[in-house]
Structures are given as C-alpha cells and as structure tokens.
Amino acid sequence: MNSKKRIKGEKTVNSLIGGGLVLTAALALVKLIGFLYKLPQTAILGGSGMGIYNQAYVVYGTFYSITVTGFPVAISKIVAGYLSEGRYRDIKRTVRVANLFFMAVGIASSVILIAFSGFYSEKVYQNPNMYYCLIAVAPSIVFSCLMTTQRGFTQGMKNMYPTAVSQVIEVIVKSIVGLLGAYLVKNALTVEYESLGSVLGISYKLANDAEMAISSLAAAGSIFGVTASTFVGWIYLVIRGAVRGDNILKADLDDSPAANTNRYLLRQILAVGIPIAVGSVTVALTQQIDSIMIQRRLIDVLESNPVALFNSHGGWLEKAGKTLQTKPENTAVFLYGCYTFGFSFFSLVPSITGSFGMSALPHITGSWAIRDRDETKRCIDSTLKIIAVFAAPLGFGLTALGTPILHMVFSRYTPEEVAIGGPLLSMLGIASIFLALNGPVNSMLQGIGRLDIPVKLLFVGGLVKVAANYILVGIPSLNIKIAPLGNILCYGLISTLSIFLLQKNTNLKIDIKGSLIKPLAAGAVCGLAAKVSYEVMFLLLFDVIRQKLITLISIAVAGAVYLILLFVMKIMTKNEIKSLPRGEKIASLLEKWKLLG
Q1: Which of 335, 364, 394, 417 is the most exposed, having the fewest neighbouring CB atoms within 10 Å of its CB?
Q2: How far apart are the first and last CA of the chain?
Q3: In sequence order, which ranges of 245-327 are alpha helices (DSSP H)?
Q4: Are 381 and 597 in contact, with CB atoms under 8 Å apart?
C-alpha cells in the first residue's frame, strides 16, 4: 500500500470511529438518564402501567418507523453521495425539498394516529385503557419528522454532533416532563378515587379496575414527555442551524454543477428512503404483532390452564396480588410488563452500536460511489470490529447477570417483576448481540445501494419470531418465560445472512476472524467471569456485603478481564486505538508492551 492510501485509510478509520464515539457518548448519557428515569417511572406506574405504556409505545413506534426512521438515513446517504461528487447545489436543494415533504408527512401521520387511537386500543389490543396514551404521544410524530432533515443532513456531512446533542436534550426533557406528568396525574386521580370512589367522574366498584384506570392515565401523562421532548429537540436544531449555518461556502456553490429539479430530488429521497422505511416498518409491525400475540396467547393459557401458568412462576404472581380470579387480561398485561422491564437494558446494546452504523454510512456511500474498494473494505472491517468490541461484553454480561442487574436497579420497588423479568433479560442478552449487528450491517448494505436486502431479511426474521412465539408462549408451563427465544432466532438469522450477503455483494473478503470471532470470544469469557465472580461472592460474602454491591463488583471484575483480553488477544489495531480519546498515549504504551495487533 502506498503512503497516500495508507494516510487516507488512517483518516477514514479515525473519522469513522470518532463520529461513532461522539454518538455513542451521547447515547451512553441518554441511556444513563433513561435508566435513572425508569426507576421513579416504574415506581409510579407499576407493572400494569408500564405494560400499557409499552403497548402504546409499540403502536407509536410503527407510525414513527413509517414516517421517520428510514429517512434520516436516506438523506444522509444522498448528501454523502453528493458531497463526494462536489454537488453542493444539490445538497442545499435536497434539504429544502425534504423539509417541506416531511412537514406534510408528520402532520398527516399525527392526525391519522389520533383518528385511529380508539380502533387500536379497543379492537386491536382490546385494551381501552391505552387510548389516552396514543392521544398524548401522537403530536410527537410532527416534531420528529421536522428533525429528520437536519439530522440526515449533518450526518451526511459527517458531523455527528448535532444529532448527539439533540438526543441528549430530548431524553432530559422526556424524563422531567414524563415523571411530572405521571406523578401529578396518578396523585390527583388516587385522591379522587379515595374520596369519591370515581376516576374522572366514572365510578368503580372493584379496586382492581380503578387501579387499571388510574395506571392508564398516569401512563398517558408519562408518555406525553415524548411529545414535549421532540418539540424541544426540534427547536434546538432550528436555532443551531440558524446560528451555525450549513458549512457550505459560496465558493463551493460557484464551482458546483447546476442542481437537479425538485421533482427529481423528491423521487430520489423516496427511492432511497422508502425501502429503508419499509424495513423499519417491518420491524415495528413485527414488534406490534408480537406484543399483541404474546398477550393474547397468555390470555388463552390463563383461560385454559391457569394453574400451570401460575405454578411456573413459583408464587411470584400471587405475591404481586394476582390470583386465579384476576381477569386474564390484567394478568397478561402484568406479565408482559415484566417482560418489558428488561427492554431498556436489551436496547442499550444495539443503540450504542447503531451509532457506528450511522457514522459508517456516509463513509461507505462515498467510497463506494467513487469505486475505492480498499476504502470500503477498511470501513466495513473497522465498523464490524468496533460493533463486536462493544456488543460482546454488554450482551454476554446481561446473559450472565440478568436477574442481579434488574435486582440492583428495580428491586426496591418491584421485587415480583424483577423475579419474573430477570431470567427473560438473561435470554435477551444473547439476542442483543445479534440485534447490535443488524442495524450497522443494514447501513452498509444501504451504503452500497442494496436497499432491498435488509427489507427482505427483516421480513423473514419477523416471520420466524412471530411463529416461534405463537407456538412456544402458548405452552402453559413456558408462557412468557420463553418469549425471548423468538428474538434470538429472529436476529440471529438476520445478522448471519446480512453479513454473508454484504460480503457477496461487495465481492470483498471481510475479516470475519479479526472483526467478529475474536471480540465475541473475549466477550464470552467476560460474561463467564461475571457469572463466576457473582456466584462465588454471593456464596461467600452474602452475609457481609449487600447483593447490589456484589453485582457491581462482578461487573467490575468482568470489565477488567475483558480489557485484558482485548489487548492480550491483540484485537484492536494501532490506528483504531489512536482514534480513541487519548489514543496516541494509549497506543504508544501498548506498542511498548507488544499488545497491539
């Protein structure tokens, strides 16, 4: 390799990983705030309220996927392509066309969700309590659509900071408004019921029914935080754009070819965005169908063989106040709420690695457009490796310490949900590793122009997931306890096939061993270290130190083991280490110790 190519490759790796780290740092902060938010939110809403909240969020997620999810990626891809070709006039016109289009789409989608809220809650989910949640969250689609263009534009220009900052702003506003909304609504309605026996003027004879009504309205107050957060996030991006500009100079515009027509650019946005959006919708619809079906299968079991289901949970349902006389739909919502308790941890892994997919997309698009295959291969190998380096310890760590982690975070408020949800999180840990690969590999396939492959794979994986859960959740002794297996089968199949097809369509030899196998092996040992250290300390020191401290020490031990393996196995290269904060010093030290690959 000549020196120019080597220097260019180093810059690409540094920019790719650096951009990913910016988004990862933001997402880490977002997730930290999200975890802290979950504590009081769970305490206020309880299992039933969380179940209703998450049901509504699945419906909202479907609309969000249709109108928002695919299009920032589409705009990023289009902008990156024009940037590599020096077509700055097309970049500016693309942004103008996209702004008008997404404003119209957002308003229309929000109106449709409001109009069909009653149908979704009463006919589809058979849970009228969900209605107010859907009304509260619907306006957020408008503001999310308005953010689409700005985020896609800045990402395509290889600037990840605006997206990162807006995400942090959103989660802060969501947490504050969501908690205030849930607390104030629940407190006011509880006072009304205790003094008048009614909730919003409707009388309830059974305390259980009143509790469900209060929980649903408190959930609506909580989910309104999403609407408030998207509004503030959009305002930030508008102000930033007005103050900082778009970094396109007049000289760039003077040298740029004439822009394509508005109609051509809109067709291009739709041609790139629709396949990506269809893939996102496939995921959202699969989650929605899965959510509905799991709860209906639980209701079927509770009506046909409730004793077997109750016995399978070792008395925890009774401790949570559920009995054989409790309405089947209420118990089903509670169990589904327990299942969703671990979703924040489960989604942590792919949300972190997704940042590197977003960062990789403009690099791969640009290098592929100018036929620089060496650059494309460097981007693919570096992205896969950094994904595996992050995903492996997190995923295997969740598998090893699922119940202890939930106990550490939630036990003070909801011991029953933790006891039921902990084993589910352990299974979801494996699924999270596969899911972590899916998004970034999909971005790579989109970057080389194969927009159809992710859609097809997501559809096949979704069918596998739905079929597995329909069969397995309907077995009384397994019920909700087996639900995570559908995720493992779904995302395992998708990630395996997508990597194979990426290699086939690029005709490049991906470094599977160095980029995937070695980091995954180190992550598996990390998980084993976490499990062994936890069990040993629990056995020997439980009477001496608290269980939560044992969990924290086990996580620290596992982290230390993983860091050692990362360098002993020479997983990271010198250039990859240099791209990290203080990377030059770290690389020099590791090179001195002969620990660099």
Answers
A1: 394
A2: 18
A3: 250-255, 262-304, 306-312, 316-319
A4: no
Q: Residue 581 has which token pair?
A: 């904060």
Tokens of 470: 């329909």
* Residues 380-409 pLDDT 10s: 888 899 899 989 999 999 999 999 998 888
Pick from 452, 254, 342: nearest CA to 54: 342
**Rg, Å, the chain Cα set:** 25
E strand or H helix at 87: none
Tell me the β-bridge partners of 198: 203
Q: Whole-angstrom Cα distance, residue 55 to residue 288?
A: 8
Residue 557 has pLDDT above 70, yes or no: yes
Residue 95: closest CA among 110, 83, 84: 83
Q: Which residues contact 511 (CB under 8 A, 6 or more apart)?
A: 381, 384, 385
Confidence of residue 410 (pLDDT cuts 50, 70, 90): confident
- Specify the DSSP element, H or E, that contains 198: strand 198-199
SS (H, E, C) 521-559: HHHHHHHHHHHHHHHHHHHHHCCCCCHHHHHHHHHHHHH
DSSP for 332-366 reads: HHHHHHHHHTTHHHHHHHHHHHHHHHHHHHHHHHH
| DSSP single-letter state for residue 203 | E
pLDDT tens-digit readout, 366-385: 788 778 888 888 888 888 99
pTM above 0.85, yes or no: no
Q: Distance (Å, rounded) from C-alpha 352 to C-alpha 167?
A: 13
Q: Which long-range contacts (CB under 8 A, 24 or more apart) does 324-332 make?
A: 326/208, 327/208, 328/298, 328/299, 328/302, 328/303, 329/126, 329/127, 329/295, 329/299, 330/48, 330/208, 330/212, 331/298, 331/302, 332/295, 332/296, 332/298, 332/299, 332/302
